[in-house]
Design a protein that fits this description.
This protein has 9 helices and 8 strands. With 297 residues, the protein is α/β, with parallel strands linked by helices. The protein has a single domain, classed as Alpha/Beta hydrolase fold, catalytic domain (Rossmann fold). It has an 8-stranded mixed beta sheet, sandwiched between helices. Helix 4 (121-136) crosses helix 5. Belongs to the 'GDXG' lipolytic enzyme family.
Length: 297
C-alpha cells in the first residue's frame, strides 16, 4: 500500500527526505533545526486556560492546559525527541489537540535533556511531575502518555516506582525501548523515512552512554512491574515498529492489560505531525477509546 498519501505530502512539504541525518549536525544544530516553526503549522485549539506551573522539589516547569468543565482525568504528556530534542513549548500545538481529542487536562513536562543530563535524569523529572499532579488533583484519574523517547520515559517512570503516585493508564505512541536496535524493522529500508536507525542509535548513545539504563529498556524487565492498563500504538513504516510490538507482547506476558495496534501506511511521528493528518486524529480517537474508562471516570 505504501505511505499514506496525506502523510507523504506533509513530509514532502517539510523536506524530510532531503534533510541530513540529525547525528551529522551535532546536538546544538539538531535542536535548532528540530525547533523551527514552519509556515502552515496549526497552533491547535486553545484550551480554556494555559498556564506554566513549577514542579515541586525541582527546577522544572510544566505547561498545563485546562479544559472546561473540569474533566475527570489529567494527562501527563512526555514529548519525544530522542531524549535530546524538544520542549514543552514546542509541544503546545499537539498538547492542545490532545486536550481537545481526549477531553482532558494536559500537562507537558519540560524534562532535562541528554547529553547534558543523561539517564535517569529525565525519568526523575517525569516522576516529579507525576507526583505533583497526583498531589494537586486528588480523586482525579491520571494518564501518563508520550511518543517515542517520551513514551519510554512514561513507561519507565511508572515501572520504576509503581507505588509512588497513582497512575491509571499509560499510552505509548511508537515507543523507543531497545538500545540494541535488533528488530527487523531497523534493517528495513522502507522504515527509514523519518527516523533512520542510525539516528536512533545516536540518541541512545547520548542518553545512556554507559549502556546501563534498566528502566528505559522494558524488554529486559524481569519480572515485569505491575503497570496499569497500557496502550501501545506503532506505525508500519517506522524503525521502532517491531520493538513496539515486542514491548506489547512482553508486557502482556507479564500480566499487564495491554492493547496494541499498528497503523498501516503511517510513519514515525505521525500522531504529532503538524499540520495533522486524518490518521493522527484517528489514532488519538482510537487510543482514547482504549482508556475511556479512565478518561471519562
Amino acid at each position: 500500500m505504501g505511505i499514506d498519501p496525506e502523510v507523504a505530502a506533509i513530509l514532502t512539504a517539510k523536506g524530510t527526505s532531503s534533510a541530513p541525518p540529525l547525528e551529522t549536525l551535532g546536538v546544538a544544530e539538531a535542536r535548532t533545526v528540530s525547533g523551527v516553526l514552519r509556515p502552515g503549522q496549526d497552533p491547535g485549539p486553545s484550551a480554556a486556560r494555559e498556564l506554566v506551573r513549577e514542579v515541586a522539589g525541582t527546577d522544572r516547569t510544566m505547561l498545563v492546559l485546562e479544559v472546561d468543565p473540569a474533566p475527570p482525568a489529567v494527562v501527563l504528556w512526555v514529548h519525544g525527541g530522542g531524549w535530546v530534542l524538544g520542549s514543552a513549548a514546542a509541544s503546545l500545538p499537539f498538547a492542545r489537540r490532545l486536550a481537545a481529542a481526549w477531553s482532558a487536562d494536559v500537562a507537558v513536562i519540560d524534562y532535562r535533556l541528554a547529553p547534558e543530563h543523561p539517564y535517569p535524569a529525565a525519568i526523575d523529572d517525569v516522576t516529579a511531575a507525576w507526583r505533583s499532579i497526583a498531589r494537586a488533583c486528588p480523586g482525579r484519574r491520571i494518564v501518563l502518555a508520550g511518543d517515542s523517547a517520551g513514551a519510554n520515559l512514561a513507561l519507565a517512570a511508572v515501572a520504576r516506582q509503581p507505588d509512588t503516585a497513582r497512575a491509571d493508564a499509560v499510552v505509548a505512541f511508537y515507543p523507543a525501548v531497545d538500545p540494541e536496535r535488533a528488530a527487523p524493522s531497523h534493517r528495513d529500508p522502507d522504515c527509514q523515512v523519518v527516523l533512520p536507525t542510525s539516528t536512533m542509535g545516536w540518541f541512545w548513545q547520548l542518553y545512556a552512554p554507559g549502556g546501563d539504563a534498566y528502566w528505559s529498556t522494558p524488554l529486559r524487565w524481569d519480572p515485569v512491574p505491575p503497570l496499569p492498563r497500557t496502550v501501545v500504538v506503532t506505525a508500519e513504516f517506522d524503525v521502532l515498529r517491531d520493538e513496539g510490538q515486542a514491548l506489547a507482547e512482553h508486557l502482556r506476558a507479564g500480566g499487564v492489560d495491554v492493547d496494541h495496534r499498528c497503523w498501516s501506511g503511517q510513519v514515525h511521528g505521525f500522531v504529532t505531525l503538524n499540520p495533522a493528518p486524518a490518521s493522527a486524529a484517528a489514532a488519538l480517537a482510537w487510543s482514547a477509546r482504549q482508556v475511556a474508562g479512565v478518561l471519562t471516570g
